[in-house]
Amino acid sequence: MINSVLVANRGEIARRVFRSCADAGIGTVAVYSDADADLPHTREADAAVRLPGNTPSETYLRGDRIIEAAHQAGADAIHPGYGFLSENADFAQAVQDAGLTWIGPPPAAIASMGSKVEAKRIMADAGVPVLSELDPAEITADQLPVLVKASAGGGGRGMRVVHELSALEDAVKAASAEAGSAFGDATVFCERYLPTGRHIEVQVLADEHGTIWAVGERECSIQRRHQKVIEEAPSPLVDDAMRQQLFDAARAAAKAIGYVGAGTVEFLATDSGEFFFLEMNTRLQVEHPVTECVTGVDLVGLQLRIAESDRLPPEPPPQDGHAIEVRLYAEDPAQDWQPQSGTIHALDVPRVAAEFRIPPRGGIRLDSGFEGGSVVGVHYDPMLAKVIAWAPTRGEAARALAAALAGSKIHGLVTNRDLLVTVLRHPAFLAGETDTAFFERHGLDTLSTPLADDRARQLSALAAALAAAAANRAQAKVLSGLPSGWRNVASQRQRKSYRVGEDTVDVDYRITRAGLDADGHDDVSLVTSTPGRVVLTVAGVRRTFDVARYGDQVYVDSPLGPVALRRLPRYTDPDAAVPAGSLLAPMPGSVLRVAVEQGATVQSGQPLLWLEAMKMEHQISAPADGVVAELPVSQGQQVDVGTVLAVVHAASES
Description:
This protein starts with a strand and ends with a strand. It is of the alpha+beta class.
């Protein structure tokens, strides 16, 4: 019997495991880095142990410290979650050698799937369809495109698509370097790349008594940088015949390696129903909630029971309805998926029926590792939450999920929320046309367009100005009941300016005896205004705007779409200006390497340096032909967002 489980992970997945442990009457232990000291998972466990440091290599990748923490807190079992050490066979063995229960597959099974090259050989021998491995040195033009792929790890790191032979060598080097940094193993290989494939995976559960379940399939085809963004169960591609073939292949894969516990067998499929083994994830998947919703199975709960040597029933439960999950990331899709960091002021998803568990009668499920006031750092993946909808049909699930996301109050960071809503409402998505080239085919620039159009942004800026005026009057010590800027005799108009994306919006208005008089808003009248809510009548239709302020940042939420604004000062500080041609750090991070020297002549698009942040490399390139006039940073230097990395004087200025 397991009495106390330490979760060797952080954030959302730690909280998810804690929930099933609590339901089973099992105690919980959290571990946390210094950066994560204030996250919810550290408070929710029965005990929490600090892992000194911030980076993964100092903390969540230190198996020795984690095992020591388990002994220190009295835990008798370790659950690895996903990522970090979850697929590390040496760690799994060390846990068992320390006298602790490992809530995962046997170390030998993990090791056999740890190398994607070896995994393909095992699967081929077991009769599972595979894509053949290609030697980078022998690839010819007629074999393109190919995918360069890290042998260890996952999550899209250490992967590059190559369309030209001339780019292959650099792609192999870059993928190898990224894989070495992320997983400690720089081995990469190549395989045929299917640009419009469908990513189908089968959830398996196996006990130590020989029962192997294929619980259901998921489709995870909509991806960015080879990392999943939207997942669903069941797949709109898979019919009953293909499902049976997938389940047979997945069970054969699990049997071939003596698998025990929860795992996922991933396949790449074509629209014709042909499929090939990609890899086996010897752990719980991020997207496991969609399978839980449609089957009613608590996958983590079954992991715990299997670890206690319980038997699975002979057959898994059937699937019911449809579930869709989105990964809400702190990132800017319109800026090449640039990750974001900083404080989340608010993270409020409406109509949530359950958190970390199956909604009792369908609806919205929320699994998140953050809450209002949490800080998203630069050391870990920027996923804020998983939002899941479960409904009788796929269309109903997509509509409910899009509505919940569109109505969410997400303040403090740029996220991929608008992109997710647009995809969920896209005719191609609703038709089930969800291959891995979805973003490329439909245009990322179009899909990432803000939900709020220009008119909505103008109205939101007006609401922000009126709410700010109401806040000022509420704090007034004399005649606080008068409107802001009130004069007995008509005088100059109130004026406020806001930055909305790349645009500046000026709001000019005054409150007269006849009501609101705002430039450009002749069809708008003011109903009520308070510091947190403004109600306007727009062309005869009443609209409500919720307004929240955090310093200069203003967030306006309405059914017209969320709008983030930055209040501009009335007067600018000349000392705050940066030199023309400055390249600023888009996020906090570390300068990984520098490719040029001060005084070098560069061409537009030429790489100048690389930043490492949130487990990814980010290239900083020359904005135009010119000369590197300043290069104030060096390799290994830590930089904050907004730091001047380089100054390039355009050729016409040099």
